[in-house]
Fold this protein.
Amino acid sequence: MNHRFKDRLLAQLFAFSLFLNFLSLKIRLILSKTLDFLNMDSLFFATADDDSLFGTTAAASRSILQSLEDLDDERLYLVDHRWWNETRESLFREVNGVCYPTTTSSGLADDEFEFESEIVLEMRTGEGDDGGVDWKVEGEEGVSGREYALVSEWMFYRALKWHYDMKYAGNFVAIEDNKADFFSLQVRLSISAATNSLVVRISQKGNEIGAFNKSCQIFCLKSGLLNIWDFSGQITKFFLQGRMLSDKSEQVNEEIFLELQVYGLSFDVTPKANGIAVEDFDGFSSGSSLKVNGHTDNVNSLVGLGHPSLTSSLSEAYNLGLTGLYNLGNTCFMNSAIQCLVHTPQLVNYFLGDFRRDLNFENPLGMNGKLALAFGDLLRQLWTPGATSVAPRAFKSRLSGFAPQFSGYNQHDSQEFLAFLLDGLHEDLNRVKIKPYNEIKDTDGVSDKEVADEHWRNHLARNDSIIVGMCQGQYRSTLICPLCKKHSVTFDPFIYLSLPLPSTTMRTMTLTVLSTDGTTLPIPVTVTVPKYGKFKDLIQALSTACSLREDETLLVAEIYNNRVLRILDKPADCIDLVRDDDRLVAYRLLKDEDVLPLVVFTHRRFEDPYGQGSPALREFGIPLVARIPDCSDGSQIQQKFLQLLHPLLMPDEFSSDVFDDPVNTANEDVEMVEAVDDNAFNGDPNIEVNDKSFVDDDFQFYFVQQEHFSEGSKMLMDEPLLIPESRRVNVLVSWPEEMLKRYDTSILSHLPETCGLALLTKKPPESVSLYKCLEAFLKEEPLGPEDMWYCPKCLKHRQASKKLDLWRLPEILIIHLKRFSYNQFLKDKLETFVDFPIVDFDLSDYTVHKEGQSSFRYELYAVSNHYGGLGGGHYTAFVQCGQQWYEFNDSQVFPISEDQIKTSAAYVLFYRRI
């Protein structure tokens, strides 16, 4: 969304935002004393419908509370304490854990495992004299040596990513001894008043058989204790909730249900039943669905097909991030962009961390945090160990609420999707709750650095999120008035660069060139021009090809049905407006005659197309064009026409001395025409003649209107012309049989297609450097007529020239290659091969502001590709994981080599600062 539009919208909502923020602060104050002790579900149920509390903003407040309620969906993970502690020393030193000595009540013989229908664990605690809880301090190991850690979801994923990075960095430390196993457990929690402990029940009935068997191996001890360290702070909440439930007689049997995720706690222990080894059942089907702490997701994303076996090593299981996305129906555009984003290092670390603390529930431009929650959940699913392909239905549903155009299953543009997604994530994660109003100050006489810094501070005062800090840069925009040379400099943020593709792909075009002085025959001229260039490029190439004199100019017209359909007189128009089967004619005219009226001669003759003896007048040949004086009469028009026809005279009809003098020949033809009977056609050019005995043997001329080509009046020799306001005179010339014999009209009838010759040769696709694309983006060029700039000095709208410069570079640079071209007549895709750097993209020569920037060099880490054309195409992604490149083709993921990255399908490039 355009930032200036946001500013205007928020300026109107500023007062309402203040009021809403005051109410939300009041709500949080009321809830602050109870949120740590009560379950959010019951609390919100009690308060969300209290309109007397929230007044006229009850609906808005309920929306905020509903978004807050989503924060209670954090999963809990049980991991190996040693594995966690390695990470904690690096990332979580400020996080303290509380140890709960835990025993199991399942009966186990000394020499064998006996499976019970339920595992019961008691997490003990005692209360001190002050009524507080006296827990065991960290550092004391369990008797059995089994130490586990209970962590929140964001802690788990940060730890997982840390170990993954250590693996790729070559530092395996001690984690290779761990067994990477991942599964879910349904547990029930209650409070035992007799033992003052938290009772954990894991039943065989409520879990898959494979998960229950694994839990037996983890929790069922032959002797001794195990220690469970709580780093999530949730055990305190469970104790308080359990006591509240046990104090209510009517809810004495009520328990707390929890979906516990278990990772890395497999043991090389084979359970036995009656002395016979029991096979380890995985038990998770690809289509089953579990409720995970409030989430309902496909188990594929966690422990589906292909998850590591019970005895697999960690190195085999660490395929983090190599998870595909199912195509939900023309959603390849979405999958491609998502895969690029979920492998952006800063974004991965952020969403694997505690991103929920930044959720903005009060921003009217966002989704009350729901889009960010859905994206974070999807990213974590894609970074879950052993995950297979994920169906992003929940995320797509959330996105459709923010951008309704993505609600269906039509194909869309991945760059357009990316722009909306980044904007939506920014609004959901904007740390600025109340945006200040910043008035634009006069910058005359102020240095660019001061102006740029002020614009950037004002921008950050209203926009502060991971998206801004990661992706947004700043460029300088300079407008120059073409008349008074007034300069206007502004500094605007950007989240991506849309670079044009310079027209290196050439197009071969054939035009027919005619003289307007009767000296040369029409000749076809073939030129090569940029395929996506302008008409001025065509005129320049054509002028060179036909050796145009300095005093001459070219008038290019499109011919359709032997008439001038339109004059191509706008140099800034795109060449791709001309189709391959169009026919173009270029007329050579004198520059100093540009102010004179233009006369266009269109030819007609009698034809009998059906052979039924009923000839009719029909147009033929190439129209002829010339300039005439303002005071011309009919005889001068006739003389000009005969002069233009002179090169077409048949050589066997006249002597060489007459043929060499076009003026004399024209005079003789005029004398012949003056003897014409003016009443031959009775002034009706549309007459159908069956008996041609009364038809004259000389030309007949009629004035016609451009918009009504068939209507006109016969030209009189001695009457002056009435020049229309358009300064264009259209004359219809009827050819008799005698004149058709005297002139070679076949030359006029041959008009080649513009690009017919291009089919004979097929050139290999040309390439362009990414630096050339950047130069084309930054070059100075005039604004279009529809984008006129109001000059504050001239006090008028001017077609100013615009110049862009890179001023401040982001950490993540997203480059969009403008492969799709659109205009009022057609749209097309550019297949230009862009040669982009992979390891060293240096922008130091393209950035005008050097101070305070750590680096100007970038390396590529992801590419969104588009294959095919506009009618039907497909998106994929290339992503670098560690040192290896992979292709993500919807649900399929496979490695590729670095030399396969550069293709003509590259559409959006993702660079990170070196």
